[in-house]
Specification:
124 residues; alpha/beta; Rossmann fold; five-stranded parallel β-sheet; 5 helices
């Protein structure tokens, strides 16, 4: 995990801090994008082990972003985890159908989150 580089796509500073805190505990470096457009720019200029994407982003939301990522040949292999404060069973279903490898409602359970992150990276 120490060689991992994760992209966090989250518009809320508190949410960014939580995910960064979990990742840094495991010595995982991370970049942060506030919007879907910013995330796409970073994805074309950096190599990431995985991406953690908030569904409720302004402008291009997380579902639109994952569909764009999955449509790009150079990016479609990237393990992506959805996070959201607006959890419903339908949203979880929509997120997984759109192409996310895993889904988490906020607040994050750090142990379960890291187990799933490890799983999706290993499967990626």
């Amino acid at each position: 995990m120490e060689n991992w580089h994760v992209l966090i796509v989250e518009d809320e500073p508190d949410g960014q801090e939580v995910v960064q805190g979990i990742l840094s505990y495991f010595n995982i470096t991370a970049d942060v994008a506030f919007t879907g457009d910013e995330a796409l720019r970073l994805l074309t200029t950096h190599t990431y082990t995985a991406a953690v994407i908030d569904i409720g982003l302004p402008g291009m939301d997380g579902l639109q972003l994952i569909r764009t990522i999955r449509a790009e040949a150079a990016l479609n292999h990237l393990p992506c985890i959805a996070i959201t404060a607006y959890h419903t069973s339908q949203l979880k279903k929509d997120a997984l159908q759109a192409g996310f490898n895993a889904y988490f409602p906020k607040p994050l359970n750090d142990t379960h989150f890291m187990q799933e992150l490890e799983r999706v990276v290993a499967e990626g």
